[in-house]
Design a protein that fits this description.
Distance between the termini: 53 Å
Strand content: 25-35%
Number of strands: 6
Radius of gyration: 22 Å
Order of helices and strands: HEHEEEEE
Oligomer: single chain
Shape: elongated
Length: about 130
């Protein structure tokens, strides 16, 4: 191997080592801060999309005290508010978690592993 070839190889090895020494932003558990009507609407839309539903109902303070979000299936009811009889699939609740990746707030659907960046939300590490 020539001196130039050895220097190139050494440089390539150092560059590869440098990539491992400085990983990208780490992902940490997070909570929402200062939720707005816009960020709450975006959260509802993202959760509904993740669950293939038209709409979901979430509390206004969802993900503000804890980075975990559990969404249960709504029982169908009749006009008097009684649960409908018949086949009811007792689906397990859906779990989500909020993480901060760099400066981004990312909602992770635990069931599928899908990740959704919340564009209008602000969050801090928990």
């Amino acid at each position: 191997m020539t001196t130039t070839g050895a220097a190139t190889l050494a440089g390539a090895l150092l560059a590869m080592a440098g990539c491992h020494a400085h990983p990208g932003p780490t992902e940490v558990p997070a909570v929402l801060t200062h939720p707005t009507a816009e960020s709450r609407a975006e959260l509802r839309q993202v959760v509904a999309r993740a669950l293939n539903r038209d709409t979901v109902t979430l509390a206004d303070d969802a993900l503000t005290a804890d980075g975990a979000l559990i969404v249960e299936r709504t029982l169908r009811r009749d006009a008097q508010g009684r649960p409908l009889q018949g086949m009811e699939t007792r689906a397990r609740p859906e779990h989500f978690r909020l993480v901060r990746n760099g400066s981004r707030c990312v909602l992770v659907h635990e069931g599928s592993g899908r990740r959704f960046t919340l564009e209008s939300a602000t969050c801090v590490p928990r």
